[in-house]
Amino acid sequence: MKSLSGRDRFQLLIAGVIFLLFLSAGCRRGGPSFEPAEKAPPERIVSVVPSVTETLFALGLGDRVVGVSDYCKFPPEVNALPKLGGLYNPNIERIVELRPDLAVLLREHHELKEKLDRTGIETLSVDHTSVAGILNSFVEIAARCGVPDAGTSLRGECEERLEKLRVIAEGKPVSVLMVLDRDLGERGVREVYAAGRNRYFNDLLRLAGASNVLAGAASAVPTLSREGIIGLKPDVILDLSSLGAVPDEDAAELEELYRHDWDSFADSVPAVRDGRVYPILVDYATIPGPRFVRFAELLSEILHPRPSPEPGHSGL
What we know:
Layout: H1 6-29, E1 45-47, H2 50-58, E2 65-67, H3 92-97, E3 102-106, H4 110-119, E4 123-126, H5 131-144, H6 148-168, E5 174-182, E6 192-194, H7 199-207, E7 210-212, E8 223-224, H8 226-232, E9 236-240, H9 248-260, H10 270-273, E10 277-280, H11 292-303
Parallel strand pairs: 1-2, 1-3, 3-4, 5-7, 5-9, 9-10
Antiparallel strand pairs: 5-6, 6-8
Helix pairs in contact: 5-6, 6-11
């Protein structure tokens, strides 16, 4: 083997030093050869689920939303946007026509994500199956859209309001049956769909100082017969409306109709006997977006009513 001359060894040493300096600089500063380029914030966003749409608007990103699902109704501005179909069968061709640079989905939208991936449309999947997932989604969406401070602020505001509910809820939880849907005003209550092993609703009830009588059910939305309801013996029944937003002038009459349906349970169910059946006629009760805090606060007021301020006190 031919030995290296002094000149060759010197050049090899210099090359090695330069290479090590290059590696060192790359490790310290993240040189362009090793770090992926940062993605530009999306300017055209589509959403296929109400909770995501409401989150985008709450983060101040409403002006970037170019399409929403048929079921997105809030805030009112979304009614003027192009509609993309149902929650699980959106119109892919329509989405492509809108030329979005981001589609925000739920994590359970596996098939939809695969279809959009094939079109080259970028997706971001978030978790709205629990309170923790919703709060995290504020930060995730805001970060991807270039407004991280908005995500941190929205999450902080919600956590602050939830902490107040935790203080109010201290003590023995109230047993609750949460009805998600049923026939209204037809021969009383017979078959109902209730919240069962559902992390989102169970989180809300826990925050409000309640326990779900169906938390251990095998299904997320079990169906109950009349006999099943009697056997549960809930202290409180929360009867959610599937009608969407109800005008104020119709609310009192509709609430009475909801309560009247339960009259035949007066001798067998504590909640009915004690007058603790509460119709909930708000459109956000089943939407796990930013307004979930309003729903948690409403549940807290129902389950733990606070005394009215005394005369002469502002109550603030």
